[in-house]
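1st attempt posting a full record on here, be nice pls
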Amino acid sequence: MAEDPIEVSRTEARGGASTHVTRYVLPISLGLIVGLFIILLLMFA
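the predicted structure (as tokens):
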């Protein structure tokens, strides 16, 4: 027997408002990784 789909809003599905942490974490971590690779390249090249 198929169940009826449950329709909820985006906010209810997420469990509330989310912060924009990923907006800052992703570019910062990417910049740190690129910087680390540049340092390693300069040290071992």
